[in-house]
Every structure is written in C-alpha cells, then in structure tokens.
Amino acid sequence: MNCEVCQLKELEVEHFEIREVLRCILHTIVFNRALGLVRPKDVDLELFEITYVQCGDLELEKKIDEKIEQFISWVEKHPNKKSQVCLSFFEVKNKQPSWFTNKTERLYWEQWYINLNVAQNPKAHSTKSHHSKVVVDPGESASEERVARRAALEATLHEVLFQIVKFVNEKKDHVPPIPNLEGVVSFPYEITIPSSSDSAFGMDMIKRMLQTGHPTMLS
Amino acid sequence: MASSHGNNTHSEAAMKEQIITEFYAKSLHIILESRTPYVSSRNYSGEQALSSPSSSSSSSSSVRPRDKWFNLALRECPAALENLDLWRQSNFEPMVVDVVLVQRRLVSDLVECSPRTDLARNLSLKERYPYCWNYEQEDFWCEAKSEKIIERWVLQYDTRKTRDTKSGSRRSSNNPLQMLYKKSILLLRSLYVTVRLLPAYKIYRDLNSSGQILPFTLAHRVASFAEPFTCREDAEMQRFEFTPVDTGCGRLCLSVLYCSSLSDVSSEPSTPMSPQVIPDYVGSPLADPLKRFPSLPVTGSLSRATPVSSSFSRRHSWSYDHGIDSPPSVSFSPSPTRSEPHASISNPRSRHFPPTSLPRYPPETSLDYKKDVGFYEYCPSPGFSPALSPSASPSLPISIPGNHVSKNLLRSESAPVSAPVAKRANSPASSQKLNFPPSPPLTSTSSGTFKTDKATVGTSVEKLFSFGKGESRQCSGLKISSGGSPQISFSRSSTKSFPDDFDDSEYPCPFDYDDDVTDPGSRPESFDQRHEPGGLFPIKKSQDAAVGALVRMLKKAPPLRQEVSDSVSLSQGCRPEMWSDGKQEANLSSESQAPVQPADSSTVISSGLITSKTTADALEELQSYRDIKNSLLAQSSKSHV
Questions:
Q1: Between A39, A51, A164, which is nearest B201 by CB?
Q2: Of B273, B125, B262, B132, whose CA–CA distance to B205 is shortest?
Q3: Number of folded domains in chain A?
Q4: ipTM associated with this complex
Q5: What CATH number was assigned to the domain covering residues B9-270?
Q6: Higher pLDDT, A87 or B133
Q7: Cβ–Cβ below 8 Å for B73 and A34
Q8: B175-201: per-residue pLDDT in tens?
Q9: Residue A8 near residue A160 (C-beta atoms within 8 A)
Q10: Does any domain span residue A8?
Q11: b/e per residue, B325-334, with b = 16+ CB within 10 A?
C-alpha cells in the first residue's frame, strides 16, 4: 500500500492572502478526492482572477475554514517562517485484533503539502523599492509593486492548481475504492497545520510516519 | 485492467459501454456548462430562469438520474443535452468540442479612431437582456464578427492500441468495472476543475457576471472530426492531456488544446465604466453614415415600390423602442416566408439552445433550412445577445404580429427587421438566401454578402443607447437617460451619422439645418458633434464637468413640445404609415437622428414624429440651446485651458 505525496509549489503570500489561497487549494484538492455525489460549487477568489471548485459540503467548508483560522493564528505567532499545511487522506482500518488493543489504524494513502512563505509586512517591501522609481511618489511605486507581486502570486497559485490537476490525473491507482458511504467527501481526511509548539510539527509528522508505517511518505 | 470474468462478460461489456457513453455525456456537459454563457447557475436567478427555465431545478437538492453518473451533479445545460442525444448513437466516435470566441470586429475594424474599449464601455452602459437573445441579430453582426477557436476538446475512445497498462489495480481492482468507474470519476473531477482554470473560463465568467455588454461571446461546435488548425493557430495553442482511462479494451482519451493568451479579450470588460466622455468615439466610423445606412437610399426606392418592405427597412424606430403596445404589427406584416423563421426563432428555447453540430454547410435551399444551418453551424451562446438584445428582441416580433407585440415592449420594435431588407437591397439576387438572418458566419457567403450588416450594427448600437439606462425604463421610455450621471457617449453614434449621410438632401426636420452648419459647436443638441474628431470642442478629456452640466441643463430644458412626448404611444400607431414612403422614411430617420441626445430620448421621439413643427420653431429652440452651450463652452475653456 503506498502513500502518494504531492509537494505543492511554494507560494509567497502576504498575511491577508493566506485565507483565500488556502481555501482555494484545499477545496480543490478535496474536490478531486470527493468521490461521493457532489454538487460542485464554483467560487471566485476575491483577490485573484481564479475560480476554484468546492464540493458544496457545509461541513467540509467549516472544517477547512477552522483549520485555516488556526493556521493564521499560528502564523501570527510565528512570523517570517515558511510553513506547511498538510492535507492527508486515509483509510481507517481496524488494527489486527490483537489481544491487547482493538484500536483503529489510519492508513494514509495520499498527502498534499501546501508550502507557504508568509511574507513580511508589505511596508518592508515598499521601502526597498525606493530606488526603482525616481520621481514617482513612494505610495505609487509601492502599489505598483503590490500589483506585480499579486500578479506573481496569482500565477503561482494557478500553477499550483494545475499541479494538483496533473497529480490527480496521473495518480489514480492508489485511490481506494469508493466506499459505499453517504456524503460528499467519501474518504476520511485530515488537515494538519504546524502545531503551536513550533518544533512539534516535524515531530508530529515523524510520529505519524512511524505509526502508519509509510516509508514512502516523504519521498 | 484485470481480466474479465467469464460468466459476466456480456453484461459487463454492456455496462462498460454504458459507462463510456455516460463518460462522453458527462464530459461534454462539463465542458459546455462552463462555456455556454447564461446556462450555468453562477448567480443568475431571474435571468437564468428565463433563459433556461429548467435550470432552476439544478439548484434544488433533488438528484436526477443523470447526476448520479460519476457522482457529479451538474447544472442543467441544454446545449450539452442536445448534443448528447446525438452522441449516444454515435458508437464512440471521437467527440471534438470547439469553443469559439466570437468577437465583434466592428469595433476594432470600423472604429478606426477609437479604441475598442470605447465601444465596450459604451455598450456596457446598457443593461443586459440575456433572454432577449436572438438568432436573427446574430446575422447582423456576421460581417462584424471574427471567430477564433480558443479551445478544442477532443474526447476519443481509443480501441486500437490496447496498450496493456496493468499498472493499476494494485489495490482495489477486483472489479475492473469499478475501477473503470472510479477512474472515470477522478478524471471528470479533474476535468471539472481544469475547465475552470483555462483562460476561456474568464471569458465565460465575464460574459455571465459582468452585467455588461461585451463585444465578444463564446460559441461552441460539437463534431466528430476536427478541422485542422492553421500553423499559426496551432502555434498559439497549448495542450493539456488528461491521463487516459483504461477500460480494458480501449482507452478513454481526453485532451484539450487551448489558447493560453486571451488576455486582450478578457481584460477589456474590466475597464471601469465612467461617465466620461470619450471624445474619439463620437466621430467613429461606427457612426459613419455610409456604413451604417448603406441601404437606405436603396430601400427608399424599394419601399416606394413596396410599402410593406419599407417599413422593414426603417432603421430608426425610436418610437417603437419606447412604444408600448402600439399596433405596428400592421405595418410590419411580413411576408409569410419571413415570418415563419422568425416565429420559430422567437421561441425562447430554440433561441437559446440550438442544436449545434453536424452538418456544417448544408445547401441553403429554403428559409427554414437556412435557419437550421445557422443553428447547426454555429451556436452562439446566449451571452451574445445582451449586447444586441435591446434591438435584437425587437426583431422577433415583427414577424409575429399580434403575437408578442402587446406582450413585450422589446418585441414591438422593428429595427432588426430592416436588415433583411437591407440585404435584399444590396444583393437582390440573393434575397432569398439572405432573407434569413442566422446565417452561418463560417460559410463563405456570410462575409461577402452581408455588407450592410454593419449598418444594422450601428443601428442596434444606437438602439441600445436609445434605451438609455435599462429595461426598467422601457415602459416609461420617455426620459430614459435622465439618470444622475450623464453618459453622453452613448448617443453619439446615432446622432452623427445621419446628418452626414443626408446633408445635401431636403429635410423637413428643422434640426437638420444644423448639419449644414459647419460649426459643430452650433449644434447644442447633439453632444456628439462636439466630440467629433476635428470638432471645435476644445477640451478632449476633462470636460466631463462641462458636459455634465450641459446635459443637466438640457434635461431641465423644456422639451420642444411637451405634449408630444406624452403622445408618443399614440403617435406610434400612425408611424408606420409614414414609413411607407421611402423618402419620408429617410427624412424621418434623419429627423430622429438629429435631435438625439443623451439627455432626453423623448425629444428624439417627438421630433421624429412631429413633422408639423416648423423650422422656425426649431431654430428658435436651437438658438436658445446654442446660447446655453456657448456659455458653457466659455466656462469650460476658462476652467480647463
């Protein structure tokens, strides 16, 4: 049983863009993995000229938003850090009914790593750019820069979405059979954000790897 | 795929076939749903309901059988459904879906001195009329249209290479059918996402959500073969190939060729609208009389002979625009041949979702057939209509006197009808052919024969403007543009042309004197004149304020004849008779032209109607306006220069 891992291209975002960017990516991934009856919902991003697709499942939406909020507050506490959000899909299997435990086990079959680089306060940027324009007042050049930066992010986000599409297309074999469950999102999933104790994030992952025994996880 | 199980082979094969068939269907549905404007449920409540009545059901939670396929519940997309039925019998032929960007070239081609955005902006002043969509109108634009395939989706079931991809089925694969189904679902999910990531989706989105009238639209063609691209086209295209789904005895291959740069188009509509005057636009060739009314002289003579047709040729049906339910139908009484296609077109459903596919260039034997050609050949998406609709819708009714006339204001108008006549006038020999509007733009005939369409385009543009701010005003019609922000530009095209066209002829209309006056400044009424290139108006850009003030003044100014505007609807009744005389028609239309002003369309109507008004009266009025204008000019030049 293999676990496919997709490392998405890193995105340079500003603080206020985190929410939209993450929503867009997370929903897109989940939509591609929601094999239950889906009534898709198109959502236009406000900051970017991008439309992504949601499953139209309120619960999912709520869960994603919750996680994003957690992530944002984590980012606030840990500025200037590259960070990862991981979306994993797994199957729940009963562990072998051994005589001392009857725990269930998560078998991860796919993990997506969303890599974000939350940029500094934009003010820092504008000061740097002073040399570029001579006459133009700083406000204007700053806004120009913002536009350029936004465009770049939009392009990268677009790339990331295509990356998702390609991945999803290429890797189909590892996806478990569609469970006969009601509901839109057919596979259990989890969204992992860096935990509050900074270093524990990596530990978490390692722990999980050990637990689930997926050597290919980070390949 | 794993081995097929012996006993079940038969039913399995049948199921497999069904999955493949449904896969075709779903793919097409997904593609067209996001490429056919006004069909999706992107926040179109009312309009959408109008354009596709059945679509409302999609928002409900009921699950239709079709939705269950691949666990993907899609919105209603009649365009797709129509094609699907054809495909179900097609034995897995390849399916090629071309998404075509149709641009109104008139803007760029005709309007030499004004950037394209001008028209976009002007057009967008108008509110859209998504449901007033009309094939006939399509025809008017056909010369002005340019088409470009911006996406080509190719779905084929490739049975030749039964390449053995046993890679799969590591996990679940007990059942090859399940595997096939699951992979199909996965592929369709990613298709759904991809369709929204491609550049064409922006166009679709703009068309649907902007609320503006855009100089382009999307159309699609579905066929079982692909016309080869030219090298140049090919070079522009990027390819995205979905990973084929193995069915065991073949592969489902889906790929798309798409234009990666459509920015020039899609960025246009984003230009923010402002009530700014666009100076260049005034004198634009759009307003060029020769282009716009090439057929008028001809129609004049024609109409002398056949009064009925003259009514068709009338291009300036201002009064009808605002008319309520006058009985213009009488004058219109079209020949049965013509009315027939019209009638069928006017069926909202057929209008919106014509079958699109297959026979590409059938012989144009009969009118009706011709209509079909139009449908097949080319399925303009309803989104196109908004731009044209105000004038487009009017055309419908003509053919069906008594049918729509009283119901729909829009329908009582006649402008579009003139097109056929114009065409006939131009090329009498081919009148039969040309009679029917929805000519396939792709056919060679279209570009050659329909020269006059430009004229109609102009007309429809005017009519857009004459409508003023929105449908809500249709009924009141009289003070359409009296809104807060004077958007002068919109009246421009209309005013300009006629004077030039007929400046040497005899006008009964007092205002026509203006046209002979060399100083454009002396025409206080028509703003456009001032903004013509080369016009005397000194300030090009920043005169908004002055213009605004002028407009306000004009608005406040008493109509030339108050009672006239009140009697518009009445006058409509008698209008048709006037039109029966070709010459008078020209005069009338020119009359209606001259006074056109953004501020008060009622004036248009009234002046057009009242031929009894003497020249002296008009001159008097004119003089007073001129004074106002001069003072304004003085003011503005003080402030701006």
A1: A51
A2: B262
A3: 1
A4: 0.83
A5: 3.30.900.10
A6: A87
A7: no
A8: 788 888 888 999 999 999 999 998 888
A9: yes
A10: yes
A11: bbbbbebbbb
